[in-house]
From TrEMBL:
Stretches assigned to the DUF1854 domain: 20-140
Pfam family, one: DUF1854
InterPro entries: DUF1854 (IPR015005)
Name of the protein described by the UniProt record: DUF1854 domain-containing protein
Taxonomic lineage from the root: Bacteria, Pseudomonadati, Bdellovibrionota, Bacteriovoracia, Bacteriovoracales
Superkingdom to which the source organism belongs: Bacteria
Length: 145
């Protein structure tokens, strides 16, 4: 059913999907909509208990990435330093700085969803590239294309 590609993309029955908890403030681990690229529901997961343990682990991992990651809403600056890239960004919770090694690149999760893993293991992500302002898109495009 669920499969994770090496680049972090989640697939359900061969289709690239995202997870959308229906009641995130109450219980993120039940009542989960499985959405395709067009945001159409392809499956509804009432409970993780419906899945085998291996499948549960994949789903939980992807739910936590969204929950624990920092959603980037604006790219203020990207500076190349010795063996590092410094990102100054605006997130939903304020301004943040993170570093990636120069040889590492953001993971493309979907067509317009990118995930950045900083040198400390923190996750930053762009949920929808086109939702960023034009300057932010220009700043980040060399690193995601």
């Amino acid at each position: 059913m669920f499969k994770e590609q090496a680049n972090g993309q989640l697939y359900f029955k061969g289709k690239e999907v995202t997870l959308h908890p229906c009641f995130p403030s109450q219980d993120r681990m039940s009542c989960i909509s499985i959405l395709d690229d067009d945001q159409n529901e392809v499956f509804f997961l009432k409970s993780l208990n419906e899945l085998e343990v291996e499948q549960q682990e994949i789903v939980v991992k992807h739910l936590y990435i969204e929950e624990l990651g920092h959603e980037i809403t604006k790219i203020l600056e990207i500076v190349e330093e010795i063996e590092l890239r410094k990102f100054l960004v605006e997130t939903r919770s304020g301004i943040a700085t993170f570093y990636m090694r120069s040889e590492e690149w953001p993971n493309k999760v979907r067509d317009d969803h990118f995930q950045f893993l900083d040198i400390h293991g923190d996750i930053f992500y762009i949920k929808e590239l086109l939702s960023l302002d034009t300057k932010s898109q220009k700043r980040v495009s060399p690193f995601i294309n």
